[in-house]
Write a structure and sequence with these properties.
By secondary structure, the chain is of the alpha+beta class. The protein has one domain: Beta Barrel (M1 Pyruvate Kinase, Domain 3). Helices cover 15% and strands 36% of the residues. The protein has three helices and eight strands, in the order βαβαβββαβββ. The protein has an eight-stranded mixed beta barrel with strand order 1-3-2-6-7-5-4-8. The longest helix is centred in the middle third of the chain and has 8 residues.
Amino acid sequence: MKYKSTVTGIGESVAEFMEAGFIIIFNNNAPQEMADLAVLHTIENLSEDVKVGDTFVISGKQYTVTAVGGEANYTLREMGHCTLKFDGNDTAELPGHIELKGDGVPTVKVGDTIEIL
C-alpha cells in the first residue's frame, strides 16, 4: 500500500465539485479557504509515487489511475493535495490532477478512507 488516509472533513463546495466529476483533497491542516473546497483527510506518508495502473480506493469504491499530472505526486506528498478527476482520461488536464477510471464519483463522508495501492 502506497497511501492510506482517513477523511476528517467535507468542505462546503465539495458536493458541487462532485456533481462536476471531481474531488479536491487536502491534509486536514489546510488553510480555511482551501478547506471549504476540499475533502480533508489525516496527514499520512505517500510511500511511493502514484502512477498509471495503480488502484485508488475511495469510500470503498475502486478506481484505476489512468493519468498523473506532473505536480500531483509532489503536492500529494507535501500537502495531501491533488484533484481527483473521475473521467478516465489518459492525459491529466492540469499538473495537479490524477485521472481515475471507475464507476462514477464516490459519495465521501467523514470516517471513510482514501487508499492508493
